[in-house]
Structure formats: C-alpha cells, structure tokens
Amino acid sequence: MLSLNDKIEIMKKIILLTILFLGIAVNAQELTWHTDMTKATEIAIKEKKPLLLFFTGSDWCGWCIRLQKEVLKTPEFAKWAKDNVVLVELDFPRRAQQSPELVKQNMELQQVLGVRGYPTVWFVNASKKDGKVNLEQIGSTGYVAGGPSVWLDGANKILANKKS
Description:
By secondary structure, this protein is an alpha/beta fold. The chain is built from six helices and five strands; from the N terminus they run αβαβααβαββα. Helices cover 51% and strands 21% of the residues.
C-alpha cells in the first residue's frame, strides 16, 4: 500500500508530465506550413516577411526527409521561422495524391525558380502591384549538415540580403 507521500509524489509527476505534454503539443501546432501560394503571399505581404519556399519530395526524397527531421521540425527552427518567414511547402510526392490545382501551382513555381533537385529552399520577397504578385528572389539553400544552428546561420546570411 502506498503512503500519502508516495501518492503525492505520483500526482506531482502526473501533473508535470501533463503540463510538459500540453506545452509540446501547443508548440507543435503553432508552426504553419502553407500549401496555397496565394494565401501565403497575402500573409507575407501583410506581415512584411519573406516567404520560405520548401521544394520537397516528401514521400521519396531521403535528403528532404533528413532536412525535415534535423532542422525543419526542431524547436529552434520553429522559433526562428515564427519571427522571420512565412512557410510554404511545395511538395512533389510520388505516392500521395494532390489536387490538379496544387500540382499546377507547384510545377509553375518550380519552373519559375529553376528548381532542379530536392530539397531546395528558396527565400523570396512577395509584392503586389496592379493585382499582380511579384516574387523577388533573395537566395536559396538545401540540405546542410550540422543541425538547426548551422542551417539557420546560412538562412540568416541569405535573409541579410533581402530588400524589404
């Protein structure tokens, strides 16, 4: 039979784990990856942030999966992204089905930016003039070994070139 102190200690641990779990769940939900370029562009213009365009083959590209695991799904990246960019995932899956509109959008952006391999990450500034959206290229990167701090250092150097 457990003593009162043992029961109190168990309750403290349950409460602590619940708070920790809820904190992780809330943080994971806060990072939004857009797939609709029109919506993402509107947000980027409104918030005066560049777009981070992540060209990926989510269900077949090993380097894409590695970039996701080592950088894009880390707390360091999430904190940085919220302050610096609007996230857009442009996926080219082999198994998953996509709407014809999404396939068309992703292919057009791939051609416009000259993406030839995956993963490719482009940083662009979006502007709108006479109802037409313009994307100004800031710079690009891909998978970089060394974890989130190395990748984010490179991203910050690219963004230092932006003309807002």
